[in-house]
Amino acid sequence: MEDHTVHIHQYLIDRCRAGDRQAFFQLYRLYSKSMYNIGYRIVHDEAEAHDVLQDAFISAFNSLHRYRGDSTFGAWLKTIVVNKAINALKKRRFERIPESDQFDVAEPVEDALAEFPYTVDQVKQAIGELPEGYRLVLSLYLLEGYDHAEIGDILGITESTSKSQFNRSKKKLRELLAEKTRGNTGL
Fold first, then answer.
1. Does residue 6 contact residue 23 with C-beta atoms inside 8 Å?
2. Per-residue pLDDT tens over the stretch 77-119
3. Nearest to 15 by CA among 59, 70, 73, 71
4. Which of 11, 120, 123, 176 is the most buried (most CB within 10 A)?
5. How many CB atoms lie within 10 A of CB 166?
6. Tell me, what's the pLDDT at 122?
7. What is the pLDDT of residue 33?
């Protein structure tokens, strides 16, 4: 099967490979905001997210000769950003939840159309309050679209541990939101 992926910024990539500094700047401008947001959702620290962003772009630009066009440039860059962000977390020695099958409990199915009484800002703030390991798995799964097997590979944990951490992160998120609502702290 032939690959018909459209590479809308291929001309910029070709110019970058030729050493055109303006093309580097244009690619950076096109992708920096979305890549910063990805990094921030993982490291949850503005300064560190900026560092991740810069490291990712330096790495991407230095490795541009390895970009083969098998995926979009944005998808390729996103992989680099996610890896840099996870490495930043590892440097912080984030706490992992011990692997144990006893925590791999099925989550009850909920009505997706049930009333959701929280605002986006309330949810974002509550996600920010999650322990780092929970927030990382939740972000990779829900926000970045990785499946549990991929998360396991990225973090060096089993697929079932990823599922367990995800289930626990959802439970903790619900608790934080309920606590804020009961306390009426004006999230």
1. no
2. 999 999 999 888 878 754 444 444 444 445 554 554 456 677 7
3. 73
4. 176
5. 19
6. 80
7. 96
Could you count the other beta carbons within 10 Å of the beta carbon of residue 49?
22
Q: What is the DSSP string of 19-31?
A: T-HHHHHHHHHHH
- Residue 46 pLDDT exceeds 80: yes
Q: Rounded to whole angstroms, how far apart are CA atoms 134 and 172?
A: 9
pLDDT tens-digit profile of 120-130?
A: 788 888 888 88
Which of these, 102, 112, 101, lies nearest to 159 by C-alpha position?
A: 101
Pick the closest to residue 72 from 146, 148, 4 (CA basis): 4
- Which domains does the chain possess? 10-91 (1.10.1740.10), 101-183 (1.10.10.10)
Is residue 162 within 8 Å of 151, Cβ to Cβ? yes
Give the residue from 140, 113, 135 showing the smallest Cα distance to 124: 135
* Angle formed at CA 128 by CA 166 and CA 43, multiple of 5 degrees: 85
What amino acid occupies position 112?
Answer: A
